[in-house]
Design goal:
Rossmann fold, 8 strands, pyrimidine biosynthesis, single chain, orotate phosphoribosyltransferase activity, 7 helices, about 25% strand, globular, alpha/beta, about 210 residues
Length: about 210
């Protein structure tokens, strides 16, 4: 079992990945839904951190600090920092943001290392419209950080504004390197190998044909 299939199977069994009919924030009706928030045990977050760590190292991208956006990005960035230490002996600092700026004590909207002039990798769970990633980019650019790359668990490979693939739009606008661990194509391949789940394949293909970019 390859690591992509293993992660998809793991997410499905944990009910973080579901197939059916779901209304997304964008208003689209999707035949599948992924909620990383349901991967919430110690075992779950360790697995996610290891997955990100291996992907980051394999990419050979230079970076100084990991950034995770509140709230889902916080456990992801902590777990990845731990995995980088445990597997690669890299002591990589991390930072995350507050939803509201603190006006007393440790003031400001960021918690963790100073990021000015540092190379940052952004960690997120899913890319659909790209709104969350744009928000993270704005925070980091305001602090004069340099964004090395963006890593996501799932790229839905959907059209964003002006029918551009969300990730391609980010690349064109900002020239940031974006890496996805699994995509809708991986989900379709997984379903084709699972007899009890094959029935969902036509809906995913139909959705991809309507909203996807190849």
């Amino acid at each position: 079992m390859n690591w992509k299939k293993e992660f998809i199977d793991f997410s499905f069994k944990k009910k973080a990945l579901k197939f059916g009919s779901f209304i997304l924030k964008s208003g689209r009706t999707s035949p599948y839904f992924f909620n990383s928030g349901l991967l919430s045990s110690g075992k779950d977050i360790i697995k996610i951190g290891v997955l990100y760590a291996h992907s980051i190292i394999d990419s050979k991208i230079e970076f100084d600090i990991l950034f995770g956006a509140a709230y889902k990005g916080i456990p992801i960035v902590v777990a990845t920092s731990i995995a980088l230490k445990n597997f690669y002996n890299l002591n990589i600092p991390y930072v995350f943001n507050r939803k509201e700026k603190k006006k007393y004590g440790e003031k400001g909207d960021l918690i963790g290392q100073k990021i000015q002039n540092k190379k940052i990798i952004i960690l997120d769970d899913v890319v659909t419209s790209g709104t969350a990633i744009h928000y993270s980019i704005n925070i980091l650019e305001e602090k004069k950080a340099h964004i090395s790359s963006i890593f996501v668990l799932l790229d839905r490979k959907e059209k964003g504004k002006r029918n551009l693939h969300t990730i391609h739009h980010l690349k064109n606008k900002n020239s940031y390197k974006i890496n996805s661990i699994i995509t809708i194509e991986d989900l379709i391949s997984y379903l084709l190998e699972e007899n009890k789940l094959k029935k969902h394949v036509p809906e995913l293909i139909k959705y991809r044909e309507k909203y996807g970019i190849y």
